[in-house]
Amino acid sequence: MSGHDLGRPDELSEDAIVRFRGERPERGWRGALYKASGGLLNPGLGEAERERRDRLRRIARALPGTHQIAVSSIKGGVGKTTVSACLGLVLAEHRGDRIIALDANPDAGTLADRLTGDTSVTVRHMLENIGSARTLAEVARYTSLAGRLQVLASEQDPAMSEAFNREEYERVCAVLARFYNIVITDSGTGLVHSAMEGTLALADSLVVVGAPTVDGASRASKTLDWLIAHGHAAQVAHAVVVLSCDRTSTEVDSARVREHFEARCRAVVEVPHDPHLATGGFIELDRMRPATVDAFVALAALLADGFGGRPVASPTRQAPSTG
User: Fold this and answer.
1) pLDDT tens per residue, range 232-276
2) Cα(76)–Cα(219) distance, integer angstroms
3) Taking the model in full, what pTM does it have?
4) Cβ pair 277, 288 in contact under 8 A
């Protein structure tokens, strides 16, 4: 009797031949025990690690078209550029598509300084040659790279950067939308300059940055007031407020501050003090404290909830296509 007469053998699929060992912990005592035992002892995931993995799955959601995220504040000094940079790094780290961070500050913004240190080519150079930016390679000539995140620097000469207006911002975004899945705009300080009008008009998601201090909370709240007064109530209702906790005081009721913004917006994320970010210098994810990275993962997951679709491939499995 031939082997064909005995019937077809079972397929050697992964589900058929790999013993189920549960999800493998990587953090805390659970991760330490798993590693020390060579994988023989698996206590499973703790609540915090399970929540983090759920957030990473949310971040990986597929995105049909382009999603524009505006990061704003009525005044500087509350960590707006830091939030823009770290959000971009986290999204780029955990997604497989193209992401770019654009510095739209009309006053020689520092986004590129914080991410790549390269401000030799700026958005002004791109505008001067925008007619020739017809492919991804041509657009990339005007950006620098921080890990997987593309960065488009602002003009560094304040006298020239004042000319960066709404029409020019929208021209730049029209090009970026052809090649990038997510565009993060580090908005200029303040809300009344021309480019900010374009930023709000094109934004699919809005992040407002403040701090759990009297001035930091007041600035963020006034930002929301201004937005509502100028016809952006729907964006405020769906916005995420980030409270940068570099400066804190026991005399400020931080829970009350959080409750105030939770009542006005979709969600609030608190970013803890981090010595690496507090320097105001070059930002690297692996030099930040785990709790700080987790806060930005939480922020990225909240924004990704608006993407919809199935998860995209991770960076280790699929690189962005060219074109």
Assistant:
1) 999 999 999 999 987 766 788 889 999 999 999 999 999 999 999
2) 9
3) 0.82
4) yes
